[in-house]
Amino acid sequence: MSADPTPTVRDTGDPAPVQREVVGDAPTGGDLEAAIAHQVRLLRRNAGMSVADMAAKVGISKAMLSKIENAQTSCSLSTLARLAAGLDVPVTSLFRGADVDREAIFTEAGKGAVIVGRGTRVGHHYELLGGLRGQHKRLEPVLVTLTDDSEVFPRFQHPGTEMLYMLEGVMVYGHGKAEYTLRPGDCLLLDGEGIHGPHDLVRLPIRFLAVTAYPDNHETE
């Protein structure tokens, strides 16, 4: 007897994780009918309903639901509302995959914008690896390179969460009253409100990725 490939999920009381993967036939462009068709079919199947069951629950004909699921007709607003109610989802869920204006930033190696920071004068190089607009501007990825030994180290404090991922070298990094020795492959996740920064440059050159996630509506400089 083959094992059931479906993993067992234990209910911990925490909110369900956001689904990240999409199935192979999910629409990725601006075809609204195709996006609605895909979502209605996917949600109906996930609910364990047949086309006939769903049509009866929503109050439309089986033929009409079949046309909707095959992107052969455009839905009225009232039909969309009835479909969403029958599937117990927000109406906006039926449009997933129809968005066309989704920004992405590609930065070639060594082509990121140079940031002049407090550590620039003592051999600290900050390279911004890209920045999105609007609500997505709150994420700031920076490649930091430290090449000169110094007894003067900048200290930082800011809203949000920061992640450091070591790529090269060894350093002692402080956060609040704690110190962490970071080597290649090490990761440090910290609360940006705690004063933080390098305390000791053990082995140069040092390179690490610093990604800061600012709170919603935070204006970065």
Automatic annotation (TrEMBL):
The transmembrane segments are none
Signal sequence span is: none
Q: Which UniProt keywords apply?
A: DNA-binding
HTH cro/C1-type domain location, by residue? 40-94
- Residues covered by region (Disordered): 1-29
Q: Which domain of life is it from?
A: Bacteria
Classification via Gene3D superfamilies = Jelly Rolls (2.60.120.10), lambda repressor-like DNA-binding domains (1.10.260.40)
Q: Which Pfam families match?
A: Cupin_2, HTH_31
Stored InterPro entries: Cro/C1-type_HTH (IPR001387), Cupin_2 (IPR013096), Lambda_DNA-bd_dom_sf (IPR010982), RmlC-like_jellyroll (IPR014710), RmlC_Cupin_sf (IPR011051), TransReg_Diox_bact_type (IPR050807)
- What name is this protein filed under? XRE family transcriptional regulator
Upper lineage: Bacteria, Bacillati, Actinomycetota, Actinomycetes, Mycobacteriales
